[in-house]
Every structure is written in structure tokens, then in C-alpha cells.
Design a protein that fits this description.
With 318 residues, this protein is mainly β. It has a domain of 218 residues: Lipocalin. It has one helix and 24 strands. Strand 2 and strand 3 form a beta hairpin. The radius of gyration is 19 Å and the shape is globular.
Length: 318
Amino acid sequence: MRAICTTVIRGANQYEFSGRIIEIDLTSGQIVMAMHLPNKGQVLGPRGGSRGGRGVRVFGQKIYVAIYDRILVYDFDWNLVSEIKHPYVVGHHEIQVDVEGVWCTTMMDSVVKLDFSGRVLFEWWGSEDDDFVAWLSINRHAWDRTENYDSYEPPAYNESYPGFQCHFNSVYCVDGKVYVYDLSHQALFAVWPRFEPLARVPAWNRAHNVHPRGQDILVNVSGDKRFEIWRMPMGMHKFWRRKPYRTHQVVVVPGPEQSTQFSRSGWVRGLIELGPQEFIVGCNPAGLHHLKDGRVVQSWPISDEVNEAVHGLTLKPC
């Protein structure tokens, strides 16, 4: 079994490499392939260089790797075969791939589905959706579709600017719906086939990879260095439980202090589901951890640099 992960090198300076794509043989622990990802260098932001490597998925016989302004498509021998790009689909976070194309979450308060040629099949803009705006009590804002956001830079430190309202960092296709997580408001919701709020949980401290699985919600609580499973109350339980409650917790990196994206280890991000109680997650310094039945059973170190953090994570068929 092999895993593919992307990394972000936090705090990378302009024109420095800010992330890698890495293939790991989980049986031997050997790094089979590692290469720096193209660096945009034009738009920095706080997350390192050109945002490094982002979401990664395998579909069919191809590997889809998101970077700041495009999705790189490789074959299984790591030959670059194509790129998917659109002027206002930039600042990628996570992706999901199906037979029609690629679902993308971006820094533009948007969730967009592109076909494999880069044409928009579906788009949903949180700041423009009245129900979403009312649910989170945020400002309504219309984005300019004619602008090329490839070189977009929001006003520095202006937290009221619309681009800072939301932080969509997860997208998952589950049971015919597309779910997205907003880190800024600890909010999980569906955007397709229609907007549907699911849960807001303040305890999800800077969480990632948040998505439902049946009655459960899987959560990487990155700030607290934990992986958790929460349960949605159903049936009679709704009479005494109105909000999700935690049923499972694994401390990935022990220690009293919280993790940060920069100088403290334990930023848990990236998720592979192997079974009901079995998962692989990423971390910083860059590495993978095998979780089973509530504990860490194996780890695969990649780097000893605390500023290099795993972002995207998926399995590659052998």
C-alpha cells in the first residue's frame, strides 16, 4: 500500500519552494518519490510562498494535485499530462474528483466544480448565498466574476474584507451530497444539490478534513493535535442531545501546548479512512501516523523540519 501526500513549507519567502508532493511505500516506510511543486511566487499570503501543495486525489489512472492557482494532473509514473485552471478558481484548499470533473474549495469564499478542461460545471459562493449568510451572520458580498483572481491580493490585515469572512478548507462527496467545512465559523454544511446546514461546533479548534460518515462526523482537530469522531443525535436522542457529541478521540502528538501552523508540532491534517476505527493522518514535522482503535500504532517520518506540514493525503493503488 502506498500513500501520496502534499506538504506546505510554512513561512517560505517569495520564490522559494513552498511545498512538495511525496509518494511513500507504507510497508517499507521508504519514500518512493519526492519532488518540489511549482512555486507561483506572485501572491504570498500568510501560508507560505505560493501555498505549497494542497489537496490531492487519485481517480482512474491519474493523480490530481492542487497548488495555488491550478490542478496538476500526473500519470502513475509522475509524468505531468495536463493542468486544470480557471481565472477565479485560485487559492485551492482541498479537492474531490469524480467522472465529471473536480470539486474545489478556494480562498474566494467559493466552491466550484470544474470539468477536466477547466470549464465551470457548478459554482456556489458563500458570501452570495442568503441562507448561508443568515446562518453564520456574516456580510453579504458579490464577487466580481470578470476579475482574474490569479494575481488577487486582499487588503493586508483588513479582517472585515469579504475575502477574510470564511475559510473553506474541506470538500467531500458523501451519499449524493457535497459537504464543505468553514474553519472560520466551525461550520459543516452541504452545498450540492442545495445549501443545507449540518453542524457548528466551537470545540473544533482550527479543524480540517471535516465530513460526515453516516451518523458520525470525522474531524482532524488540528489546533489540539487530535483526530476525533463526533456523532449527530438521531431519533429519540434528539430529545436530550441537540448538538453533535464526541465519541472517539486520538491524541496524535502528545504535549500540553496547542499546535500552530508554524513553529509547534502536531498540526494534524490529511485523512485516509481504512476502516471504522482505522485511519492515516498527516502532521508536522511532515509525517504520517496510523491510527487504530483509539491509538497511534505506527508512524512514518518524512521531514524533521517543523515548518513543513502535510496538507493533502490519499492512497495510490499499487
